[in-house]
Design a protein that fits this description.
The protein is an alpha/beta fold and 203 residues long. The protein has helices at 19-22, 35-52, 56-59, 68-81, 104-107, 109-114, 128-144, 157-167; strands at 7-14, 60-64, 85-87, 150-155, 185-191, 201-202. 34% of the residues are buried.
Length: 203
């Protein structure tokens, strides 16, 4: 068995921009893409088509968070790659609970900063530690039973941060939220041997 046979490739994509992204408002699941976001999704679909070439037929699976903005982004990618979209709730954004629908400015930077502590759970929502657990569950499943050798995963900025840092071997105590542009694309190779020994990666 070659090294390639012992790995899967993940193409992580953040969703396109929404009007609520632009006005810095905590989002709810049903918020759609803006026209800018749809254009961004079309651009990243082209990048994926070039990256994947002819390998999409039976060799690639497309999974997406089941929120409106990610499903719309995935639908645009689906049209370009001719792949069905598989909804995956474990790819959802952190649930910001009582903050949903509120402007960042109305909540205040001090409160938002306190939510960056990975163990602080927002009222009615999740902590970053909760998202780590979701991401670990998904990665374990994908490594044990990958639906294809290459996976396009359409998700959210925070969840994509968690996934990239977890794949790099970071523990929850070291989690730092970094900026990812809308429709950011990151590709990571993930080993599937030694399924219970951590999340070693390549680039």
């Amino acid at each position: 068995m070659s090294a390639h046979d012992k790995a899967i490739t993940l193409h992580l994509v953040r969703h396109g921009e929404t009007a609520w992204n632009a006005e810095r408002r905590f989002q709810t699941p049903e918020v759609p893409l803006s026209d800018v976001g749809r254009s961004q999704a079309a651009t990243v679909s082209q990048a994926l088509a070039q990256l994947l070439g002819e390998r999409t037929n039976g060799e690639v699976a497309l999974l997406s968070s089941d929120y409106a903005r990610t499903m719309e982004t995935a639908s645009i990618i689906s049209d370009r790659l001719n792949l069905p979209v598989l909804p995956e709730p474990l790819l959802r954004e952190r649930n910001f609970g009582v903050a949903r629908g509120q402007l960042y400015a109305d909540i205040g930077e001090e409160t938002i900063a306190s939510w960056r502590d990975p163990f602080v759970r927002i009222e009615g929502g999740e902590s970053w530690a909760d998202v780590f657990e979701r991401v670990d569950a998904l990665l374990s499943r994908l490594r044990a039973e990958p639906p294809a050798r290459e996976l396009v995963l359409v998700t959210h900025g925070g969840t994509m941060n968690v996934m990239l840092q977890r794949l790099a071997g970071a523990e929850i105590d070291a989690f730092k939220l970094t900026s990812l542009e809308n429709c950011a694309l990151r590709t990571v190779e993930v080993g599937i041997r030694n399924l219970h020994s951590g999340f070693g990666t390549g680039t």
